[in-house]
Task: structure prediction
Amino acid sequence: MITDTGIVVAFYVIGITTVASALMVAAVRDLIHAVLFLVLSFVGVAGIYVVLSADFVAVAQILIYAGAISVLLVFAVMLTPAGDRRNSETAFRAPAAVLAGLVLAVTVFVIYDTNWRIASHGQFGATAASLGRAFFKPYIVPFEVASVLLVAAMVGAIALTQEEGEDGAA
Amino acid sequence: MPPDLLLAAIRLEHVLVLGALLFSIGILIALSKRNAVGVLMGVELMLNAVNVTLIAFARFVVSPRPLDGQVFAIFVITVAAAEAAVALALAVAVYRHRETVNIDEIDLLRW
Result:
């Protein structure tokens, strides 16, 4: 439980901004505007991380989500010029809304029904050094697997987008 | 704590509800958008919601190694980056062959 007034106000302001911009992603009619609202939502999530004293994760969130992934999304919209830029919905809109509401209701019920074992430790200090030690001691194998995954994804993305007949490819 | 102070503190439940809200909005977007890039935006939002939940558990819940939640969040961000790169390359490749990224018209595997 965090009772520091400034942090509490920051949490509610950032949280409402994040959820509102996520809703705008679903509501706006232009796909580029949807990407921009998604970036605002990502930045808001980074602010939530700062409130929860996860400073390194917040920086990674800004760099990777608000930086790299949003640029990728804008590129994908730009590279598909004849695509439907209007951000319209399929016939699944009503069932999807029902399902999302059900998921939300069940999750909120479980959240308030569960007896969480709340820790007594306060906020963390700077987490970067501890995270680095965690990555190179207990999580060294997942860390290496993640690097292999990133290389595989990069090679796969290049192979998928290569023009046919280019450099002897397919 | 008295209920009139409900908004005067951040409790674990508040952060989890924020994560649940983001997750259900992500479901709504991923299931209802017509453009493949829009679907991917919903998936990214859902991954973000899960990360918020992991960070909240790391901050609030009893654990022998409290930072493990943040380590998990970093791994989720890594996998999300890889997934976004491959998915957007797929969208561009499909567009090159079919001149569309409308998921209603990408039905080559439908039986």
